Amino acid sequence: MNRPHIIRRHYFTRSLILLGFALYIGYLSRSDSLHYYIAPDMVTWITYSTIPLTIMSLSLAYQALFHKEDKLCDCERPLSQSSFKNISMYGLFLFPLLLGILLPDQALGSMAAAKKGMTLGSPVLSSVQLSSMFKAPDKYNTEFAEIAKIIYQQQVIEVNPEVYSEIIGAIELFKDQFVGKEIKISGFVYEDHSLEQNHEFILGRFLVQCCTADANPFGVLITSNQSIASLQKDSWIEVQGVLRTEIRKGKEIIAISADQITQIPRPDTPYVYPNGDAIKGLYDAGYNIKSGTD
């Protein structure tokens, strides 16, 4: 049987942990830093989670401070008398909370990409001519084929962040058809030591499904006739150039011959996310299908 003072101590500890998470989430929300850790679709849910967390914290604190001994539940299994076990158990919750408080809020960059492994490419005319050019190899790639038809008609393919991975996926799937097309794309500089240091680098992005724990780094090989030694690792740039293909490590990949490289500020939302309706996303970004043939 658990002694009342032991139950109170555990209730109060749990109350403080829950309150700590509620306050930390509230801080991230007020400082507009939640997007560093979770996808936009999850922001509302995480923000409102502070309400039940606070209620549970206050309930536990009330029981710890004001309930009479004979009113304490004592309905759980006997609590461990080992200080080591108790510290270890609560440490599992306190450790990530302390990391969040002590470490700066910042976007993932080259260090995280190097640890996870950078993936080159996607992690993902008339209508008659376009349909013949962009035939989906299977039913799962039908949307990529439709995306390819739309972006192929653009004079310059602008890779919009709202449909970033979908556009790269479509180009990757139909890479031969896109050779020679003009493209404009932005991302961070990722240095791969296997590349020619003064003329090649990878333009990277992180694709986030739910939170940064599942962030998947991917990028496009950029080559330039001019020296790129002045570009700093993790700096954000916009590249305009021509699409082509290359064989690297026995695999055909898409690459861009850069005509223009411009340094830009890091975007407020540095990650890209899957778009559940990529076709609508393309239209919202200003893409249009031209009728007829040129």
From TrEMBL:
<dbReference type="Pfam" id="PF09323">
    <property type="entry name" value="DUF1980"/>
</dbReference>
<dbReference type="Pfam" id="PF21537">
    <property type="entry name" value="DUF1980_C"/>
</dbReference>
<feature type="transmembrane region" description="Helical">
    <location>
        <begin position="87"/>
        <end position="104"/>
    </location>
</feature>
<keyword id="KW-0472">Membrane</keyword>
<keyword id="KW-0812">Transmembrane</keyword>
<dbReference type="InterPro" id="IPR048493">
    <property type="entry name" value="DUF1980_N"/>
</dbReference>
<feature type="domain" description="DUF1980">
    <location>
        <begin position="14"/>
        <end position="118"/>
    </location>
</feature>
<feature type="transmembrane region" description="Helical">
    <location>
        <begin position="12"/>
        <end position="30"/>
    </location>
</feature>
<feature type="domain" description="DUF1980">
    <location>
        <begin position="138"/>
        <end position="274"/>
    </location>
</feature>
<dbReference type="InterPro" id="IPR048447">
    <property type="entry name" value="DUF1980_C"/>
</dbReference>
<keyword id="KW-1133">Transmembrane helix</keyword>
<feature type="transmembrane region" description="Helical">
    <location>
        <begin position="42"/>
        <end position="66"/>
    </location>
</feature>
<dbReference type="InterPro" id="IPR015402">
    <property type="entry name" value="DUF1980"/>
</dbReference>
<protein>
    <submittedName>
        <fullName>Putative repeat protein (TIGR03943 family)</fullName>
    </submittedName>
</protein>
<dbReference type="InterPro" id="IPR052955">
    <property type="entry name" value="UPF0703_membrane_permease"/>
</dbReference>
